[in-house]
Amino acid sequence: MDRELEDSVGLAIELVREALAHDGGLVVLTGAGISAQSGVPTFRGPEGHWTIGSRNYQPQDLATAAAFKRLPREIWGWYLYRRSICRAAVPNPGHRALAELERALPDRLRLVTQNVDGLHLRAGNTLANTLQIHGNIDFARCTAGCSATPFLVPSEFDGFGRDDRLDDDAYARLACARCGAAARPHVLWFDEYYDEPLFRAESAIACARDAALLVVIGTAGATSLPMQLAGVVARSGRPILDINTDDNPFAEIAARSGGLALRGSAATVLPALYEALSGS
Ligand code: APR
């Protein structure tokens, strides 16, 4: 860690300590950047999903309910391939530091994640305190809505490759076990809305209202609910700490809120923060 980063981490530690001295939650909002060092591609980076896309389609067009309606097998194949990458990945020191933080502060830490990779839960964060606002790629749900409860994608699809194809039998095995209708990946698509029953949107806003500090980690700020959460926290006069390797729209809100934009990798910064806090 260079001197400049060390100084920023020092300021961040003060910010967290100060917040912990007040009432309210320590709300952590994560994006793809925290999983980058686990080998899960981000969306908008040079190797990102939205940058590279699939063989035949514009990337962002694939992540829509409209595309799924037209091309269910192609879309399923793309999600099964991405799911394989997530399943092969392991939590990195950034994920592990957040899991330690929840163990240390179970009543105060609230994790809101846009990541569908499930790595926070595998690192040890609890489902009760983790709001997966864009879903979880390991799960599917019935398109006919026969059950609101998403179910696990069968393990036979572990290792599904970028060029693998879904034959009729395999596609049939992805159907809803309860009613036999087609199932779909349990993720939020671009032409869909956040909601509470599936994506815990209202709970996330309630966390932001109660936050003593919002820590934003590894997100480009291109989605609406995360920006809304930052707005809620800033308007209530509470600070924002933005941890990212690059500049992003949260930096300006962080500055206005009396917080801090810390430029460094989550996998380096979060363990250092946790170490310092747990020692005090
Ligand atoms: N540490 C911290 N930040 C990092 C790191 C790292 N090691 N590596 C990359 N980043 C930052 C990038 O600078 C960028 O700001 O992570 C961010 C990744 O941005 P995106 O690829 O846009 O991912 P994200 O913000 O999570 O996307 C949000 O968009 O399309 C949707 O549903 C998709 O959940 C996703 C959402």
Walk me through the structure.
- By secondary structure, the protein is of the alpha/beta class.
- It folds into 2 domains: 176 residues, 3-Layer(aba) Sandwich (Rossmann fold), CATH 3.40.50; 89 residues, SIR2/SIRT2 'Small Domain' (2-Layer Sandwich).
- 43% of the residues lie in helices and 16% in strands.
- The chain contains 14 helices and 9 strands.
- The strands form 2 sheets. A 6-stranded parallel beta sheet has the order 3-2-1-7-8-9, with helices on both faces.
- Strand 2, helix 8 and strand 3 form a beta-alpha-beta unit.
- The longest helix is centred in the first third of the chain and has 18 residues.
- The radius of gyration is 19 Å and the shape is elongated.
- The chain starts with a helix and ends with a helix.
- The structure holds adenosine-5-diphosphoribose (APR).
- Adenosine-5-diphosphoribose binds next to helix 2 and helix 14.
Task: Give a summary of the structure in a few sentences.
With 280 residues, the protein is an alpha/beta fold.
Topology diagram in text:
Layout: H1 3-20, E1 25-30, H2 33-36, H3 49-52, H4 59-62, H5 65-70, H6 72-88, H7 93-104, E2 109-113, H8 119-123, E3 130-132, E4 135-142, E5 151-152, H9 168-172, E6 183-187, H10 196-199, H11 201-209, E7 211-217, H12 224-235, E8 240-244, H13 249-256, E9 260-263, H14 266-278
Helix pairs in contact: 1-14, 7-14, 11-12, 12-13
The structure holds adenosine-5-diphosphoribose.
The site of adenosine-5-diphosphoribose has 24 residues, from α2 and α14.
